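Exam prep: given the inputs below (a chain plus adenosine-5'-triphosphate), describe the expected output before reading on.
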Amino acid sequence: MTIKLYNTKTRSKEVFTPIDPNNVRMYVCGPTVYERAHLGNARPVLVFDMLYRLLRHEYGADHVKYVRNFTDVDDRINATALARKEAGASGTLEELIKARSDETIEWYHDDMDALGAMRPDEEPRATAYIGAMIAMIEDLIAKGHAYAAEGHVLFKVRSYKDYGKLSGRSVDDMIAGARVEVAPYKEDPMDFVLWKPSSDDLPGWESPWGRGRPGWHIECSAMAYELLGDSFDIHGGGNDLTFPHHENEIAQSKCAGHGFANVWMHNEMLQVEGKKMSKSLGNFFTVRDLLDQGVPGEVIRFVMLSTHYRKPMDWTEKKREEAEKTLGDWVKATDGVVPSLPDKGVVAALSDDLNTAGAITRLHELSKSEDKASLKASIHFLGIDIDKFAKEQSILSSIEEGLKTAPIVEALEIELRKARLEKNFARADEIRDGFKNAGLAITYDSDGGITFKREANFDPTKLEALK
Ligand SMILES: Nc1ncnc2c1ncn2[C@@H]1O[C@H](COP(=O)(O)OP(=O)(O)OP(=O)(O)O)[C@@H](O)[C@H]1O
Ligand SMILES: [Zn+2]
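Solution:
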């Protein structure tokens, strides 16, 4: 089936034609591994996981190469390691830095696995490609696109005439709008760092410009070149990276004489009250927070895929509830069914610039049809393991059943029902809030029943005060 993708570079939806008709190559900017991933960070993971699945379906599983890097050169990783060292942790600073990256990568894998995201074919760490970065920087200097000054190497932005094409801005507009750093060693404030010196106590590598470390942008250009070659098909990431990160990647790679990426894809942001969820704004919660609250990974995935990747979205409690209900319905509809092949309508929706919302609409139709085998295969195609979800839910409900028979919970539940019958809402609310405080969320069902949901912080002793 023809796949169409929106290309940021041309600002249009284009028919996707891989450079090598039989093999697709894709690079996605991965995380800086200094902290747990927040829910926003999961969005590109799920979007490009969906694309990866679609491409594998279309071209064959062995004919798609997906690379997503780990940025493990970063001051925030160093800061944590330093703080640990000062607090008495054993090991050298270098070992503590490595340990911090390792642990963050492990969390990342655990969290993204829980969302049903497939691991990319290659997950290069920047620290393993320093040699390739140095070689590329030397080449850029030799070609007149970069210069060394005071232990730094800078890229000459004005030496690349197409700078700004991806984001559609002129260099002068960018200077006016961006937080460009003015520094004495820069020929032009717009020039960005390819290499910078490291102090003795920080990680550094020997280079022709002294002991130092790479800038962030050169990492992706060098790793993409090493693992995907001179040119490749798709480059992805969040749209917060379009400028300056991707603009800089293009400038570096093109000036080094590489073909680089054909199609540029950017996911919109996960927002909180109209603002990007981000670590710097502090308006975030992690994927792990949600999982620990008992929100299944399948539900998180479903909610994220319900909005098209080029639209901003929020995480809301209502969306979570609806997703949980839908998946519950699909569990019933597909119980014991052997999956067949994904439905053509679902594949067609995804082939139209990853219209995941359209695919889900089609799944709702299928769930009402007789073809439950195709429904199940299509749910799996979206990366949702409905059997795993069903199993987790049944384990959870048996825990909840058990909980209800604990004497204090039971007694309070009876009192809550009574208070509601008697319209003693003050007492009912008091009990409900007390349950919530003890880590037992309750919802009132339309038929008058009460559903309990146990949170990770459940502590029945807190209920004593309610008696
Ligand atoms: N709110 C968001 N919604 C969608 N994607 C996001 C969001 N925040 C970051 N991303 C994406 O997550 C990926 C990893 O980015 P990176 O590691 O640079 O994030 P970060 O620096 O930890 O996050 P932040 O932007 O919160 O400081 C990138 O592709 C980035 O575009
Ligand atoms: Zn990148």
